[in-house]
Every structure is written in structure tokens, then in C-alpha cells.
Amino acid sequence: xxxxxxxxxxxxxxxxxxxxxxxxxxxxxxxxxxxxxxxxxxxxxxxxxxxxxxxxxxxxxxxxxxxxxxxxxxxxxxxxxxxxxxxxxxxxxxxxxxxxxxxxxxxxxxxxxxxxxxxxxxxxxxxxxxxxxxxxxxxxxxxxxxxxxxxxxxxxxxxxxxxxxxxxxxxxxxxxxxxxxxxxxxxxxxxxxxxxxxxxxxxxxxxxxxxxxxxxxxxxxxxxxxxxxxxxxxxxxxxxxxxxxxxxxxxxxxxxxxxxxxxxxxxxxxxxxxxxxxxxxxxxxxxxxxxxxxxxxxxxxxxxxxxxxxxxxxxxxxxxxxxxxxxxxxxxxxxxxxxxxxxxxxxxxxxxxxxxxxxxxxxxxxxxxxxxxxxxxxxxxxxxxxxxxxxxxxxxxxxxxxxxxxx
Length: 407
What we know:
Radius of gyration: 23 Å
Structural class: alpha+beta
Number of strands: 17
Oligomer: single chain
């Protein structure tokens, strides 16, 4: 009898131990752990802490970038590395796009408009606050030498207006100045569009997700993302949903920080922008330096001094002439977005041609985003370029929008 009781006790202990191991494994390896909060209110006085939404759906089809820009689509559950965001009412905005004492100029669709020469003035930064300590650089990376610490809120005062003023090719307000132009290369073979942008508040430089949701399988038109965000101008982003690789930091929230061998582009709260070799990217440094946005695509298009480069961290398929979308950086508070038409009357640009273009504009850093059929620029709620193949939906967009700091 005692032997049976002993055996019974041994079996009961074994069952309890096994149950304990199952519970331990469940909580430590299967169920999602609590998200780490990143409080960036000390970087931006308007910031508040918010938990990032982490959702996913199965991709209903493979997402292929026809310019060789990425892998096929993945069905994955996004892992939020840490979170904390500056929350603004960008959808409502603090201003409306109504003309105020200004006559409309000729439409971009009917002809080109001249762009202010100030966009060619160059800048004094090639990186961010304390960027000399930021790790690594590639052929297109940058190690900043600071020469001007003036906050962007105090720069370019002549670019802004006390009230909102809108024309067919420009928009100005107390915080934003945008001029958009259609350009043609000297040989007449390539048409491209430039949005020249000055910002008094870096949080006006925003990003949007398809369906306002982070995750794989979400796609939407850039126009719909513009309408949802009340954006003034927008271009397609890095199509983050097409891969599980790399860094996704959007509007102050870190959604993903996985390893990548692609160049990473980071826009910081101080208004500076830097291109970093993927293997040298540190999310801890990004947090410490105040990252506001970060994209994983590339490659970078200029060297650390804003010079032309001919060797790129990319494949031959991407290097060759294609429709393009890219972002340029002059100095904190001054940027440009460029979309190049291709595969039609306009022949597109190679990465070398893009490098020469941004260097000629005076940019100190520049970064290639998703291209091909994705390359779209929306201005005043309308697509102004001629997207290859009629364009395609994307998982995200870069945009400029008014923010309501009182919300």
C-alpha cells in the first residue's frame, strides 16, 4: 500500500512539475511580453507616452517590388521593440487649405513653375545632435560636423506666413513652407517633381500607414493616406510591409528594430537627418539621439560631405534607371521630396543620376525610397506625376501636414 502511495506521489509531483514548465514557457516564449515604454517628452515638450499598436493580417498575395527593391511579402506579426510617441491631431490640423489673399499660379499639370533658388543654398549639417558619436558610416553615410546649433523654430523666418496662403504650386503657414515644381533634365529625357520644404516644427514631417494600421498585408493608395492624414504633400515610403527586415520608426514610435544590411535613414527631433549603414545602426543610439522617423530601404545617395557617389549598397537591378522616390536633406528644417517618372516618355533615373541631382541641388544627405510603380507624389489631394503602370498601393507614406499642439 505504501509503495502505491509513494508511486502516486511521485507521479503527482511529475505532473505538477510538467504543468509548471508549460506555464513558464507560455509566458516567457509564446505570449507577447509587455511593451517597453520610451518617454521622449524630454526631447520634445509636446510628446506624450503612448503604447504602439501591434497588429498584423495575412498578406492576401505576394508583394513584389518590380524595381528589384525588396523580397516577396511576408505574413508576420510585428514586434514592437519599444514605444512612445508624440501625439498630435494631424488629421484635423490647425489650418485649412484655403487661399488667403493670393492668386493661383499655373497648375503643375499644365506647365512647369520655377523653383526658388534658396533650395540650392545647401546647409550646415550632415547629421544630428551629438551625431559625431553615432556609430559607423557607409559610402553614403555621414559623420556630422556641427556648425550651426540654431533651433529650426528660429530658422527661415522669411519662408513662413502669419496666415495660410495657398497657390497651385505653394503652401505657406506659420510652421510650413512648401513649393512644388515639375522639372525636366537638360536632355529632355526625364521628368521629375520636387517638393521643396521648410519646417518650423519637425512634427509636421509625418508618416502614415495604410489603413492607419501597422502590419503586414495592409496596403492603400497614397491618395487615401493623404486624405486620412490631411496631408499637404505626400510621397510613397519604404514599403516596410514588404519585409520583416530593418528599422521602422514612425512619428516617434519604434515598431521594429531588426537587423538589416540596407542603409537606414533617420530623421531626428532636432530636424537633422542621417543615413547610417544598416550593420552600424543602434536602436539605443537612435533613442538617445531622439529619432522621430526611420526608414529601411536605400541606398544613401550622397557621401558624408554631400558629394556625388558612384558605388552603392544595392543591387544592379535597383541601381539602373527606374522611376524613383527619394528624400533630400539640406540642413535642419529644410528638406525636399523628389519623384522621378520612368518607363514611359520619361526614362527614369539611375542611382548615379540621382546622386548628381541631389548634389546639384545642394543637399547634404539623400536617401532612396521604394520606386518603380510605387513612385507617386500627391499634392493638394491629387497625383501630380505619371506613375509607371498607373501606380500601385503601398504600406506607408511620407507626408507634410499641419499639427495641432493644443489637442
